Amino acid sequence: MPFHPKSSLAHLLRAPVRPGTVQWIGLRPERRGEIIAADEAHLSPEVGLIGDHYQGRSGNRHLTLIGQEDINAIASFLGVSVQAHALRRNIVTSGINLLALKDKRFRLGEAVLEYTGECHPCSRMEETFGVGGYNAVRGHGGITARVITGGRFRVGDCVIPELDDTSGG
Q1: What is the pLDDT of residue 65?
Q2: DSSP letter string over 96-113?
Q3: What is the DSSP letter of 75?
Q4: β-pairing, 91-94 with 63-67?
Q5: Distance, CA of 147 to CA of 79 (rounded, Å)
Q6: How many other CB atoms are found less than 10 A from the CB of residue 102?
Q7: Would you state the pLDDT for residue 86?
C-alpha cells in the first residue's frame, strides 16, 4: 500500500503490518525460577502457554512477546549484552514491530492470539541489570497477548497479523 499524503492516522493505524519470525521461546515453570528455552510450545485459550507458571492465571496475559530489535535497544542503553531469558518474556520475535499489533489478532504457528497490552518492565530489571535497568526497558518491554485459538508454534514460525476486514486492505 503506497503512502498517500491524504491518508488519515486512523487509516494508517489499520494499514497492513509485515510479518515477523519467532526467534526464541522461553517457559517459566515456577515464579522466579529459571527460564527454560524450548524449540516449540503449545497454547490453549483456557490456560495460555502450557508449561508456564502464569498458565491459567490471567485471561489477558497468556504470554509475553518482545522483539529482538527491542532487546538490541535495551542492550545499547545499558552498554552490555542482553540475553532473552534475562527479560523474562516468553517469545522473542524479529522483523515485526509488535506495537503495530495493537487492537489486532495475529497468527503464531497454529494458534491465533490477540494483543492485550504493552508489557512494562518490573522492578526486577534493576535487580537483573543494575542501576538504570528499569529505565532501559521502558518503552521496549514488548507486548502481552491472549490466546483465541490454541495450537502449537515453533522457533522459525512466522508471526502473521490477521487482515482487518474493516480496513479495506
Answers
A1: 97
A2: S-GGGGTT-EEEETTEEE
A3: H
A4: parallel
A5: 35
A6: 13
A7: 94
Distance (Å, whole) CA 45 – CA 24: 21
Buried b (16+ CB within 10 A) or exposed e, 66-76: bbbbbbebbbe
Collapsed DSSP state (helix, strand, coil) of residue 10: helix
Q: Which segment of 72-76, 89-93, 123-127, 141-145 scores lowest on mean pLDDT?
A: 123-127
Do residues 163 and 16 touch, judged by C-beta distance below 8 A? yes
Residue 1: all three cell numbers together = 500500500
pLDDT of residue 168: 38
User: Residue 33 gets which letter from DSSP?
Assistant: P
Report the SS3 class of residue 165. coil
Give the pLDDT score at 17: 85
Beta bridge partners of 111: 108
Residue 44's identity, in one-letter code, is S
Give the separation between CA 125 and CA 156, rounded to whole angstroms: 28
* DSSP annotation of 60: S
